[in-house]
Write a structure and sequence with these properties.
Elements (H helix, E strand, L loop, with lengths): L16 H9 L6 E2 L39 H5 L2 H15 L3 E6 L4 H4 L4 E3 L1 H9 L6 E5 L2 H10 L5 E3 L8 H4 L3 H15 L14 E5 L4 H9 L3 E3 L4 H9 L5 E4 L2 H10 L9 E2 L10 H6 L2 E4 L11 H10 L4 E4 L5 H6 L2 E2 L2 H10 L5 E5 L2 H10 L4 E4 L3 E2 L10 H12 L11 H16 L9 H4 L2
Parallel strand pairs: 1-15, 2-3, 2-4, 4-5, 6-7, 6-8, 8-10, 9-10, 11-12, 11-13, 13-14
Helix pairs in contact: 3-17, 5-6, 9-18
This protein binds iron/sulfur cluster.
């Protein structure tokens, strides 16, 4: 474990990551960014295939991913102050007819216009509190807008200001690959809907909220359930009460970290690589499996490393290291705590004494928390400023564009989940809402053959 060449300074106090990146690129500030293209407008990447600059820039984007058309020039060339004024004016004109939602990882320049700021599920629930709003403008990524559409009334339009704001992790579990995996598992386990003598089916599919509506629908059709990073353990316990094993997608790290904390041995968590027969495992491994982990990951959270934690501890004795469970297992193990974005936020809010925090999650949230809690030293574990590529695609220019169109009676960039997908996807979400932690820890994998 080496701390060499990693310098971590609690230097970020302005909540704007954009301003910091621009200062770095223009040489007005020290530090490093993963892409100097982040200082450009995101519209420069709307016509180019790929996730664009940021943490996912090396990931392969699936063919057929939604593309954003050209943003009108007036929004590309407007100053930040002009865009702020236009957004405020449009929101004032629309009043209660619109709700603007901003994800924790969204840039500060957009979040300041949000009526609600939270994680994806909190925001979908916030939309539910406004059944009379005609439009829900979701400043997040595509799967979040789909979830809001699933939970909102049919008359409400859910709008994603930039259609290129996908999610590289969600894209790693493609519905055709998942259907194919299910067929292969049927060859190994037999009828996947048939319970054994203990009343357990061979496998329960569990998908992370960060997945397409098509995947949530698949899970709903096959007796499975959705989870968030806050309730993953409760959901796995729900699944183990109904099945011998779990197929968990798309994030291998959340699946592994959660199951490991529950006592599932690593050797009973084979990976499913959709490009390999039987996912790259043997039939024996699959028969012995308790959790089959889909080969997906978040490129933001995969950047965090054990070396960064060692550097933080060396430079800041007593530092409290909290990371997101989408980080690799070694990083979660080396941290003091791991938890969802909401957990991280609440842990900082609950600290009564001035504390130094090193946080392993998306930099926009970390920098905002640092600005909100000046009594603490809060810094991102990753010394390179590298935001989520797809959250970055939402810029105030797109927000102004969709809001002004609404003022003129036009709905742009509406996200709609077809009914045949929406109905089973809602079933999977409802199972999650109904899942409760068991009175005593479930441990049937210890008894199961
Ligand atoms: S941070 Fe990771 S999981 Fe979240 S939207 Fe970005 S790529 Fe997807």
């Amino acid at each position: 474990m080496s701390a060499v060449n990693i310098s971590l300074q609690p230097r970020r106090i302005d909540p704007s990551v954009d301003l910091e990146i621009r200062a770095i690129v223009e040489g007005r500030a020290g530090g490093e960014t993963c892409s100097t293209d982040l200082a450009s407008g995101p519209w420069n990447f709307d016509t180019v295939p790929g996730y664009g600059p940021g943490a996912s820039m090396g990931d392969v984007i699936p063919t057929g991913s939604p593309r954003q058309g050209e943003l009108p020039a007036e929004y590309r060339t407007a100053s930040a102050d002009e865009l702020d004024a236009r957004i405020l004016a449009a929101k004032a004109a629309l009043g209660d007819r619109v709700v603007v939602l901003g994800h924790f990882y969204q840039r500060e320049e957009v979040v300041r216009h949000a009526d609600y700021v939270g994680d994806s599920f909190q925001l979908a629930n916030a939309a539910l509190e406004h059944p009379d709003a005609e439009a829900i403008v979701f400043c997040g990524v595509h799967f979040m807008a789909e979830t809001a559409d699933l939970l909102s009334r049919p008359e409400q339009a859910v709008i994603l200001p930039n259609l290129a704001a996908g999610c590289s992790m969600a894209d790693m579990a493609d519905i055709d690959q998942v259907e194919d995996a299910w067929e292969q598992l049927e060859d190994v386990y037999g009828d996947l809907s048939a319970p054994d003598a203990d009343g357990l089916v061979p496998v329960i599919p569990v998908t992370y909220m960060n997945s397409s509506a098509a995947i949530k629908g698949f899970v709903g059709r096959h007796g499975g359930i959705v989870c968030t990073s806050s309730n993953a353990r409760t959901v796995l316990e729900w699944a183990f009460a109904r099945g011998r094993r779990v197929l968990f997608f798309p994030d291998q790290h959340l699946g592994r970290n959660t199951a490991k904390a529950m006592g599932v041995p690593l050797e009973q968590m084979p990976m499913w690589n959709p490009r390999k027969p039987l996912g790259g495992s043997t039939e024996e491994q699959l028969l012995d499996a308790r959790v089959i982990l889909w080969h997906g990951f978040c490129s933001v959270h995969r950047r965090f490393s054990v070396d960064q934690i060692a550097a933080a501890r060396a430079e800041h004795p007593g530092v409290r290291v909290i990371v997101h469970p989408e980080c690799p297992m070694e990083v979660v193990d080396a941290a003091d705590e791991s938890g969802s974005t909401d957990y991280i936020r609440k842990a900082i809010e609950a600290a009564t004494e001035p504390t130094t925090f090193a946080i392993g999650t998306e930099v926009n949230l970390v920098q905002r928390l640092a600005a909100q809690h000046p009594q603490h030293e809060i810094f991102c574990l990753d010394p390179v400023v590298c935001p989520c590529s797809t959250m970055y695609r939402i810029h105030p220019g797109y927000l102004a564009w969709v809001l002004e169109a609404l003022v003129d009676g036009e709905v742009l960039n509406r996200i709609t989940v077809p009914g045949d997908v929406a109905d089973p996807a809602r079933v999977a979400l409802e199972r999650m809402l109904a899942a409760k932690p068991p009175a005593a820890p479930a441990a049937h994998w210890e008894q199961a053959s």
